[in-house]
Amino acid sequence: MPISIQVVGGSLGGLTAACLLRDDGHDVTVFERSSRELEERGAGIGFLPATGRYLADRAGIDLSTISVATDHIRYLDRTGDVVHDAEHRYLFSSWNTVYRETLRAFGSDRYRLGAELVDLVQDADGVTGIYTDGTEHRTDLLVAADGIGSFTRGRLAPGSDRSYAGYVAWRGMVPEAELPTDVSSMLGDAITYHVYANSHILVYPIPNAAGSIASGDRLINFVWYRNYLEGGDLDDLLTDRHGERRDLSVPPGLVAAHHEEEARATARARLPWQIATVVDAVPDLFIQCVNDIEVERMVFDRVCLLGDAAFAVRPHAAAGTAKAADDGWRLAEALSAHPDLPTALGAWERTQLELGHRLLDRTRVVGRRSQVSNTWEPGDPDLIFGLYGPGE
Ligand SMILES: Cc1cc2nc3c(=O)[nH]c(=O)nc-3n(C[C@H](O)[C@H](O)[C@H](O)COP(=O)(O)OP(=O)(O)OC[C@H]3O[C@@H](n4cnc5c(N)ncnc54)[C@H](O)[C@@H]3O)c2cc1C
Fold first, then answer.
1. pLDDT per residue over 241-297, tens digit each?
2. Ligand 1 atom index nearest CA of 150
3. According to the model, what pLDDT value does residue 38 have?
4. Is 0.90 surpassed by the pTM of this model?
5. Number of Cβ atoms within 10 Å of the Cβ of 2
6. Pocket of ligand 1 contains residue 188 by CB under 6 Å
7. In the predicted model, what is the mean pLDDT of residues 34-62?
8. Range list of β-strands (E), the chain
């Protein structure tokens, strides 16, 4: 039975769910807080099958045209020698590229920008979302895909606050054409790791900002996990170069100069020369905090939490967008399979709670092995990316 649905949050989780629910005949509108399309988030993502499933199965997109395939998992030692090389195929893309295609599949008619949910009221017959632009929308269901800082989670599941994992990701991208050829050729066909005391960095190629995957056009992207103590240590890192204490991330161009200099110097001192060359060549480094979020409920009468709004998992399985997409697929399936909304949402919640807890536990274990216990072993199958389990 078709119902009316407002999706709050128009990033990959919200958009994928919106496409699927719209395809099933529901009356769907997306409300996104940002006043502009979200093109500025250009970082790389491990591109697991669930993330690309809508685009491949429903939008007719050949995933090989929007992602870069790598055929090796490679580890370098401090001197830059290869100490482990195994054949393994991964796909990588960029957030921008996947967002652009998913938004095209949904269309812009029902994608409202500059609409931040600031209140919600529900009763037996429906849910009303109240937005900053002064509008109110009443629907049968509200899907909250409003991310790690979810207003909706804060309102309906107080106490499910994020908890800082003890480390952040330093990140950056550089055009491969700007790197020496011995560096770009070594880093261009693999995910390349370096693991050292209480840290690791990984490097992989991604499409450029325009989505090109042609050799020579691509970007080389890195994610470098580094420990900072909660309190003054982290506060100083997250205080940007204008003195503003940032919450979850410090964008490109705003990392405090002393931290940016320290990171580049540490890269030169501690990382293989090929990877240090990449860190040095990146014009603007940026920082994302690693946090855990978990909830005990995802359904609150006519509201459900989806993607990072429910569970934010550490990035070590490269599965955050895949989990958000899976939440959308399962929600659409549950609404089709069950005659009434409470039964459908109850069935959906059982499977997705289990997935969220399992994935979060797995990524915590992997994170601890790198950042705390120094028990990360190249070649360990448990370290393979995957949503449902390593490699799955
Ligand atoms: C360092 C790092 C590396 C990562 N690597 C990977 C990877 O390799 N592969 C992968 O799949 N995932 C990765 N992730 C995770 C991935 O980025 C997230 O899991 C994913 O973006 C979650 O999508 P989402 O749609 O649930 O939330 P988000 O992408 O956070 O989107 C939430 C949206 O809601 C909007 N919003 C917020 N509040 C409101 C409101 N009140 N009203 C209206 N709109 C609102 C926001 O503007 C935003 O657009 C990584 C994350 C980090 C931190």
1. 999 999 999 999 999 999 999 999 999 999 999 999 999 999 999 999 999 999 999
2. 38
3. 67
4. yes
5. 12
6. no
7. 89
8. 4-8, 27-31, 44-46, 68-76, 82-94, 111-112, 117-122, 127-131, 136-139, 141-144, 163-175, 190-196, 199-206, 219-227, 249-250, 286-292, 299-300, 303-305
Going by CATH, does the domain composed of 73-90+164-291 fall within 3.30.450.20?
Answer: no
Atom 24 in ligand 1: residue holding the nearest Cα? 13
CATH number for 4-35+113-162+293-374 (one of 3.30.2010.10, 3.30.70.270, 3.50.50.60, 3.40.630.30): it is 3.50.50.60
Which amino acid residue places its CA nearest to atom 29 of ligand 1?
Answer: 11
Dihedral through CA 59, CA 1, CA 8, CA 22, nearest 10? 20
Q: Which ligand 1 atom is nearest residue 10's CA?
A: 49
CA distance 202 to 274: 12
Closest CA to 48 of 379, 378, 359, 365: 359
For ligand 1, is residue 32 a contact (CB within 6 Å)?
yes
Q: Which residue, judged by its Cα, is nearest atom 50 of ligand 1? A: 315
Q: Which atom of ligand 1 is nearest to the CA of 12?
A: 25
Nearest CA to ligand 1 atom 35: 9
Which of the listed residues 308, 366, 384 should we mutate to test ligand 1's pocket, taking the one with most ligand atoms within 8 A of CB? 308
- By CB atoms closer than 10 A (0-12, 13-18, 19+), residue 282 is buried
Structure tokens, 168? 């952040």
Q: Is the CB of 315 under 6 A from ligand 1?
A: yes
Position in ligand 1 atom list of the atom nearest CA 148: 30
| Domain positions in the chain | 4-35+113-162+293-374, 73-90+164-291
Q: What is the pLDDT of residues 306-332, one digit of tens each?
A: 999 999 999 999 999 999 999 999 999
